[in-house]
Amino acid sequence: MYRHLLGAIALTALAACAGGDVVRKTPPEGYLQDAPARVAAIDWSTAQTVEVALSEYAFTPAVLTFEAGKPYRLLLRNDGSSAHTFASMGFFQAIAAQKLVSGAGEETLPYIESIEVPSGGSKELYFVAARAGSFPLECSVFLHDAFGMTGEITVR
To answer: Pairing relation of β-strands 150-155 and 63-66?
Structure first.
């Protein structure tokens, strides 16, 4: 029993080691170079809200579909007891992000690699989808993907 308790404590400690949002102000290789122009051309009052709940160990819904050229407000809400991430490099390379909003403020024109949502918290990503494709989604917190916290994002 002692060994199981140590294993549970270790997993909890590792889950708490999530690293926060990974956001850049200049476009890394593979990202949309014209994102600011795409963002400026959008009527954001028409943005469609899509809500995703993060929990142990799932995204709900786990399959997301977006239309290229349309603006979206992606609301990420963590209903779980630990921090979770919304990580999909291919998806983030396929969008032009207007802003990432949290209780701590907002990042404008971010180039996102990963979004961390603390337990009980939420974040909003305003974006326009640009490149079509299907992209894997995962929680990058240690072992969360192995426990099934995965999904798929499609841009049509």
So the answer is: parallel
What CATH number does the domain containing 75 carry?
2.60.40.420
Q: Is pLDDT above 50 for 2?
A: no
pTM confidence score: 0.86
d(CA 120, CA 103) in angstroms, rounded, equals 12
Residue entry with tokens 């918290």: 121
Smallest Cα–Cα separation from 141: which of 153, 151, 133, 149?
149
Number of domains in the chain: 1
Q: What whole-number distance in Å separates Cα of residue 58 and Cα of residue 40?
A: 34
Q: What is the mean pLDDT of residues 135-156?
A: 96
Structure tokens belonging to residue 140: 């990058």
Is 90 exceeded by the pLDDT of residue 70?
yes
CB atoms within 10 A of CB 135: 18
